[in-house]
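thought: fold this chain, then report.
action: predict
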Amino acid sequence: MTDTLPVAPWRLFVAEVRAVRRLSPSFVRVTFTGPDLDRFADNGYDQRIKLALPLPGRTGVRLPQGPDWYAQWRALPDHERNPIRTYTVRAVRPHRSEVDVDLVLHGDGGPATRWARRVRAGDEIAIVGPDSGYGGDHGGVEFRPPSTGCLLLAGDETAVPAISAICERLPLDARGRVLLEVPETGDALPLIAPPGVEVAWLPRGVGGYGSRLVAAVTAAAGELLASVPASGSTPVAQLVDEVDVDRDILWEVPDAPPTAPLYAWLAGEAGVIRTLRRHLVTERGLDRRAVAFMGYWRHGRPDQS
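observation:
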């Protein structure tokens, strides 16, 4: 009998760009295909993956192999280390060996944005993603709501792909609010959600990041909490550690949310998310085990892997 290696939760997929579609002024959808993308797990929700981008002036991507590939990659000299960035899967079609990823076009300061502005059909890339052959939890999905209560999903343009994918998987009886701050009016994309989930697009125009989102989340939290039956207990303000978003990652996700009147999932610019975290947990007294806060990026700092 020949021993076979166990299937790992994640694997490296070699892929190329099949199609590029401009969705709006700030969003572009890239469709990837590859010989083994039929094994890409369709987990839905906010499934994270990593894209390994070509080095400047080169085509194709060559990453180290083996279970310690990430450590090997980090040890490479800068000029030999392919940029790796984290994104959310927008759609998976295993029967066609296709994966869609929606990218945000803002500025031109990092390798990911530069690549997104120039990507063309036929470009080669590598994707680190979940392997459908693995039978357990792949990880990388942070949307874990309780079975009851209202939902509050909010974020800026970087969270739009994740929230859009989450909404498509919600049960038909889901209730709540979706708040999406985007650069301009034309960035309001078609979004499928249950009838009981109200969706609001918040173009900020010349305003700063969070200029529309903070006020909208503050108002929505009050309205949603006022609309649910009283539980008999009074929300208690909880102190939260102040995260220095210039040095540390703001990422707090509950493993097993309790039954709660409101479950909040918020992602986007780290400084804005820190403000919303403080409001919901410290000022509103929401159970911090029923809120997920993710600083996807930090204004003024280069994107990271």
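thought: worth noting. The chain has two domains: 10-130, 150-297.
final: tokens above.
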